[in-house]
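Collaborator request, handled under Task 6.
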Amino acid sequence: MAIHPKKLLIMNILDILRRYSDEDHRLSQKDIAEILRNEYNMTAERKAIRRNVMNLMGCGYEIEYSESVRMVPNPKTGEMEESYLWSDFYLVREFTDSELRLLIDSLLFSKHIPYSQCKALVEKLEKLSNRYFRSRVAHIRTMPDTMPKNAQLFYTIEVLDDAISRGRKVSFRYTTYGADKKRRPRTNTDGSIREYVVSPYQMAAANARYYLIACTEPHDNVSHYRLDRIADIQLLDEPMRPAKTVEGLAHGVDLPRHMAEHLYMFAGKSETVTFRMKKYLIDDVIDWFGTDVVFSEDDGEELTARVRVNLQAMRRWAVQYGPHVRVLSPEGLVEEIKQDIRDAAKGYALV
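C-alpha cells returned to the collaborator:
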C-alpha cells in the first residue's frame, strides 16, 4: 500500500536539513517550504513545517534555531498579541566538516586501499555532510588510479574481525610483486603455493599501511602481515593460540607499545637500545618511538636516548638517520649497522 504523501513530509524536511543546512547556512520556514515545493513537489504551511521540526527534535535530532517574538492580531478578537516565530534552522551533525575532512584525508593518504574503493568510501563520507561540503572536496575525483588493487581487502578485514572476535585461526595465501608488477602467492621450496595458518590478535595501521599482528603456525613468536597482501583468507574451526603463550605477548597486545617497538612492523625480539643523537632530532625521535624514550647527557648539541625497540627495525631506522644518529648499544646491533654502512659505501664505490 502506497504511503500518503503527507506521511513523507517529516522525512523530506529532515532530508532538506541534512542537504542544505549548517551553522553558516540556516533555513527559515519559508526556505524549507520553497525547497519542498521545487524539489519534492509538496506544499506545506509554516505551522506544519514547525510542527514536524519539533517532532524531529522530539525524536532526538539536534536542530538549532532562533526564536523571536512579534505582535500579531488575534484572528477572532482582533486584539494584538504575542506570536513566537521560529527561524534559522540547521541540523547539528554527528561529524563536523573538519572531522570529515580528516577522515577523507586519511583515506587519500592511505597506501593500502585501491583507488575505486577509496573513492567509494569518500563519497559515503561526503553524504554525512551537506551540498556545501561536497563542493569543497570535488578535487579528490581527479586522483590517479595508481594504487595497488586488492578487491579482497575489505573481505579480508571482515574475516579477520570475525576470527579475532570468535578466537579462531585463519588460513590465507600471502602475495608479493614480481618484476612484471603482478602479484603472486609465495611458494614453498618445492614450488607449491604456501598456505599460512595464523592466530590473529589485532589489526593496526602503521606507515600508512594496515597490518595483522598474529602468530604463525608452528612458531611461537609474533608475525606481522600486510592486509593488502593477504589473499584467499578462510576462517578455520581451530581455536587460536592464547596470546599469553606467544613470545612478546605474555600480557596481551599492548598496541601503543607494540607499535612503538616495531617501527617497520618487523618480527623478532625487542631490546633496549641506546644511541647518541643530534638535539634537533628530538621531534622525529618522539614521533617514531613515542614518549617512552628516555633522554640524558645533554651537552647542548647532542644527547643520549634510550628506548626499547625491535632490533631489525632499529637497524633500518639508524641507517635512515645515519648522519644524525650513532647507536651505542647493544654491541651486536652496532656491528650490523657498521656492516650496512660499509655495504652501502661499496655499492657507491666509496670503499
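The cover message to the collaborator said: "The two ends are 85 Å apart (CA to CA). The domain at 5-91 is CATH 1.10.10 (Arc Repressor Mutant, subunit A). Please let us know whether this matches your experimental observations."
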